[in-house]
Amino acid sequence: MLKRNTQNIYNFPINGSQIFFIAFVIFFVSSFIQDTTLAEALNGRFLRLCSYLALPLLLFKIYVLDRWSKKELVIITILILLGMINWRMAHELQLLTIVPFVIGAKNVNFKDIITWYLYLNVILLLAMAIFSLLGVIPNLIYRAAPRPPRYSLGLIYTSSLATHYFYLVLAYCYLRFNKLRWFDYLFIFVGDVIFMMITNTKLDFIATMIVIPVMIIAQRAFRGHKLSEILASFWWMAVPISASIIIFTSYFYDASNHIMRKINDITSGRLSLGYQAFSNYDVKLLGQTIVEHTYGGSKGLKLANQIDGVSHYFFIDSSYVRMILLWGILSFVLIIGCMTYIAIRSTFRQTFILTAIILVAALNFMFEPDIIKIIYNPFLLALFAIPNFYNTQEEKHK
């Protein structure tokens, strides 16, 4: 009997999707905790080691379980090595893991990825909020007149909380795309108002509001309404256009220009910070290390509450400016190309859902640094994953 059970264990079929989701959960949970005040009480090195555990699982899936040709494996190896070089140059863990995750998502149902993402995010956000309100972990409160108090609810910064809600809304819209009704949009609106009251993060609030009309148009386009189809057919250009705008305005920012100064004020100083980054650092091919001082975490809270805290603050908030300066031109071109391709593919298939998501996300990328952070943005994984939505003819064939 024991021998038979042992043989059953050895003969247990290994499923590539199972391997992927084990890696996904390990990386997601450890990375999420690193973005919370709980990480200050835990060993940061231990959390990073947990994140690294996802890599051998993904590499096993890619090189052993997935069916890539020899030429494709050579290209994949080069991309993984490029990610390793960028990681060493910029010292950002996400650069090491994003390539294996994107490629490792091959033959994995994208709907399942978004479902796991949604549930993990909601569970962890609720857990951190409860722990912070009970005093188990710090609930960072930022007070800066004339703004009302801003609460992080266990995360390292208030905008992190608002950004999580923004991407949760996008994930929710993806999963319910065919079923979205007025009460879904009311739910999104009410949630956005609540998070605005907690975090007072204007840019994420506006970005989440934009989701509602964009999704309505995308739904109409998916159902064959001509005007909506025409509008949605141009959305694939959102990433390269928004990247060009924020990089151009940041590089040529002039505080004496009234219009630029007004835009800079509206975007909480994003243009001036981008200009400062371009002034202090050159654009490199493979990235570089940039020293930043943020308001995140308990140390950041102390900096924020100092009288001269603003003068010491320096962080590249824009994903596009961050990519081209911190990660280098090669990574910038690859990521922009991948996001644009996903949007184009969704447009040609006439499904429009990922095109709509990338349109709204592209606007958020202009002012937030989370373009490749899987705990925020899981939509890069759609590149090789199995799609969930098809056009009418494909749906009938399927």
UniProtKB/TrEMBL annotation:
Transmembrane segments: 12-33, 45-64, 71-87, 117-142, 154-175, 205-222, 234-253, 324-344, 351-367, 373-390
Protein name per the record: Polymerase
Keywords of the record: Membrane, Transmembrane, Transmembrane helix
Top-level taxonomic group: Bacteria
